[in-house]
Amino acid sequence: MQGTGQFMPLAGSAPHIGKQDSLETVDEWRVEMVVDDAFITAAVIALKEAHPYETPAYDVIKVLDF
Predict the structure, then answer these.
(1) Domain membership flag for residue 59
(2) What are phi and psi for residue 5, nearest 5 degrees?
(3) Which of 15, 18, 19, 37 shows the smallest number of beta carbons within 10 Å?
(4) Is residue 61 situated within a structural domain?
(5) Where are the beta strands (DSSP E) in 1-66?
């Protein structure tokens, strides 16, 4: 899903784009995937290493089988 995100790099940060203390808007994509329990930690680590933002936004939701 494509959308628009916004952020404001804080003082002392090293923003990939934008300037400190200035609101920035960017086109963003929301990505969803299904990952086996055995690989979820590796998937989150890979996301953090590949993402250009200092702190990427992400959720991990466990789907239970009833």
Answers:
(1) no
(2) -110, 165
(3) 37
(4) no
(5) 2-7, 24-29
